[in-house]
Design a protein that fits this description.
Elements lengths: L1 H17 L5 H27 L5 H20 L4 H5 L9 H5 L2 H32 L5 H27 L2 H18 L6 H30 L5 H29 L1 H19 L24
Helix pairs in contact: 1-9, 1-10, 2-3, 2-7, 2-9, 6-9, 6-10, 6-11, 7-8, 7-9, 8-9, 8-11, 10-11
């Protein structure tokens, strides 16, 4: 857990620093697609390696982490963020970032995303398929695999939408699409409708995984944003921790439909907060450069 936190915060901080504002949506989308491809390929590769021995999947995973560490050490300068900023830019104070409407909207969106992706999607949809429709657990894996393929395919064009149309429309549309598709799952009545709903959900999830991250970069200016990225990541983790517990408790007490409705309410709250976001090119509160800080051509 400690290593994962170090990696994800550092990687996102560097990404937002090295990519210009006009490309942040596509860059974060490309970055997120790596996680999605890994989540699809990992179980398949791990299953094949497990036939060799139970240690083989862990050893292979450790090897891939070692490769990533070597690449990071060899390709990144010691202070990649300052190098990307030209060496002279200072970070935006965290208290100022928290006052930025774009950052607050990104926090709410990431919390709702964590709650629904883990708490509702992973905890409740398998119950709908097995207990509600009476199908085998194999169908759960099939539905999730199809949705993952759709989200991976959608994330790059969605990233282009985030860059060209804007963060606010993408976050608003993504939250509403996720809300509508999620609420239709307990009312579906057939596996075909569940698959269709989850494919639509995947498109909304693609928007909700790219636009908020790009908004964090806009709010921080992409410089020295480690604390802002950490809080942003923690909101998703908090939703992923609380979501399954709350969704399970509501499902036991009141039924699955109210548990889905609770997740939908968070998505609607995210959409409401997104309507109050500042424009994409709202000043990022960067300090005025001192004499000599400009590079040639700036």
């Amino acid at each position: 857990g400690v290593g994962s936190a170090l990696f994800t915060v550092a990687a996102m901080t560097v990404l937002l620093a090295v990519v210009p504002e006009r490309m942040r949506g596509r860059a974060t989308g490309f970055y997120q697609s790596g996680f999605l491809i890994g989540s699809m390929a990992g179980p398949a590769v791990g299953g094949l390696l497990a036939r060799i021995s139970l240690q083989a999947p862990f050893e292979f995973y450790a090897l891939t982490l070692l490769v990533a560490a070597v690449l990071g050490l060899s390709l990144l300068p010691r202070d990649a963020v300052r190098a990307a900023a030209g060496g002279g830019a200072d970070g935006v104070p965290m208290r100022r970032v928290l006052r930025d409407s774009r950052y607050r909207a990104a926090l709410v969106a990431n919390f709702a995303q964590g709650w629904n992706s883990t708490g509702v999607r992973n905890a409740l949809i398998p119950l709908v398929i097995t207990a509600g429709l009476g199908l085998s657990a194999t169908w759960t894996g099939t539905v999730f695999a199809v949705a993952a393929v759709v989200q991976t395919a959608a994330i790059i064009p969605v990233g282009r939408f985030v860059d060209t149309v804007g963060r606010r429309p993408a976050m608003l549309a993504g939250a509403l699409v996720m809300a509508v598709s999620l609420m239709s799952v307990p009312l579906s009545g057939s596996i075909g409708r569940v698959v269709a709903a989850m494919c639509v959900y995947a498109v909304g999830a693609a928007a909700m995984s790219t636009a908020p991250a790009a908004s964090v970069g806009d709010a921080t200016g992409g410089v020295e944003g480690g604390s802002a990225v950490a809080v942003f990541s923690m909101c998703n983790d908090a939703g992923a921790i609380i979501g399954p517990l709350a969704a399970g408790a509501v499902s036991d007490a009141l039924g699955r439909a109210p548990a889905f409705a609770l997740g939908v309410a968070l998505l609607l709250a995210s959409a409401l907060v997104s309507t109050r976001m500042g424009p994409m090119r709202e000043p990022a509160h960067r300090p005025v450069p001192r004499h000599g800080d400009y590079r040639h051509g700036d």
